[in-house]
């Protein structure tokens, strides 16, 4: 009979302890508010505006993230080029950055600078606007998507692409017909995680787009503003919606990860 060692018991015990604390914290969020109050808050004008803005900006940001993350992940996985390590470090930096610092950097970049003026001439004002919400979500979620896609392409055998090239397909055709279909589970996982990060982005949105009531108010901003006002019912409702979106995203991610 296989013996269970102290090390194994300790690892499992720590895992169960942390899981229990997280479950207790999440369940508390659902048990504290009155369900009637939550239902009424869900249909309030502020919540409907916040939910609609979060969904629209989250979908737009996620699409933009995937458009950029696919070539970035593939380049980092397949090609050697100068300063590759430096590029990878900089692209991953927002993962370690506090969101407030990232938002401040973006505010300085898109403010009264050459870059900001170029965007303004293109009728794109990213400071304290809804467009700024999309920009903040994009830069926050991009590193997560590019890391997942790099790992996905790392696991795909390059021989399959070599065979495709030897049969006369171009590099682009090989990427489209061989690499992308093989990476479909990773692409799904990156899309889901990006959407969850976009919906949950707070600090970057607060600094770049501002926390203006019924203007740039996304779900995390609704939670923050209503806690500030002392309206705990609306704040808890925002928390429940955000938690539900995150739970669904993680569930889909775990399902997709099995196939990576």
Automatic annotation (TrEMBL):
Domain of life from the UniProt record: Bacteria
Phylogenetic lineage: Bacteria, Pseudomonadati, Thermodesulfobacteriota, Desulfobacteria, Desulfobacterales
An MF annotation (GO) of this entry: ABC-type sulfate transporter activity
Subcellular location, record wording: Cell membrane
Span of domain ABC transmembrane type-1: 51-253
Function: Part of the ABC transporter complex CysAWTP (TC 3.A.1.6.1) involved in sulfate/thiosulfate import. Probably responsible for the translocation of the substrate across the membrane.
GO cellular component, one term: plasma membrane
Protein name, as recorded: Molybdate ABC transporter permease
SUPFAM superfamilies recorded: MetI-like
InterPro entries according to UniProt: MetI-like, MetI-like_sf, NifC_ABC_porter, Sulph_transpt2
Keyword field: Membrane, Sulfate transport, Transmembrane, Transmembrane helix, Transport
Subunit structure as annotated in this protein's UniProt entry: The complex is composed of two ATP-binding proteins (CysA), two transmembrane proteins (CysT and CysW) and a solute-binding protein (CysP).
Naturally occurring in which organism (per UniProt): Desulfosarcina ovata subsp. ovata
Keyword match Transmembrane: yes
Membrane topology: Multi-pass membrane protein
Assigned protein family: Belongs to the binding-protein-dependent transport system permease family.
Membrane-spanning residues: 6-32, 53-76, 96-115, 187-209, 229-253
Pfam families membership: BPD_transp_1 (PF00528)
């Amino acid at each position: 009979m296989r013996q269970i060692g102290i090390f194994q018991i300790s690892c499992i015990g720590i895992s169960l302890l942390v899981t229990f604390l997280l479950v207790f914290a999440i369940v508390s969020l659902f048990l504290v508010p009155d369900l009637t109050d939550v239902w009424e808050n869900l249909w309030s004008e502020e919540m409907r505006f916040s939910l609609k803005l979060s969904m629209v900006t989250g979908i737009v940001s996620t699409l933009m993230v995937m458009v950029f993350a696919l070539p970035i992940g593939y380049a980092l996985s397949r090609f050697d080029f100068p300063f590759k390590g430096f590029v990878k470090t900089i692209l991953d930096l927002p993962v370690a950055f506090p969101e407030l610092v990232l938002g401040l950097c973006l505010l300085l970049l898109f403010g009264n600078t050459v870059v900001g003026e170029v965007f303004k001439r293109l009728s794109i004002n990213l400071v304290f606007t809804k467009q700024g919400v999309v920009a903040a979500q994009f830069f926050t979620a991009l590193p997560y998507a590019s890391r997942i896609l790099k790992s996905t392409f790392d696991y795909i055998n390059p021989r399959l692409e070599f065979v495709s090239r030897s049969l006369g397909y171009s590099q682009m055709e090989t990427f489209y017909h061989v690499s992308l279909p093989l990476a479909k589970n990773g692409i799904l996982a990156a899309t889901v995680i990006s959407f969850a990060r976009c919906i949950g982005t707070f600090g970057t949105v607060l600094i770049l787009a501002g926390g203006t009531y019924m203007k740039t108010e996304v779900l995390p901003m609704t939670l923050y503003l209503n806690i500030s006002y002392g309206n705990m019912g609306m704040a808890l409702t925002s928390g429940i919606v955000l938690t539900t979106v995150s739970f669904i995203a993680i569930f889909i991610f775990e399902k997709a990860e099995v196939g990576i």
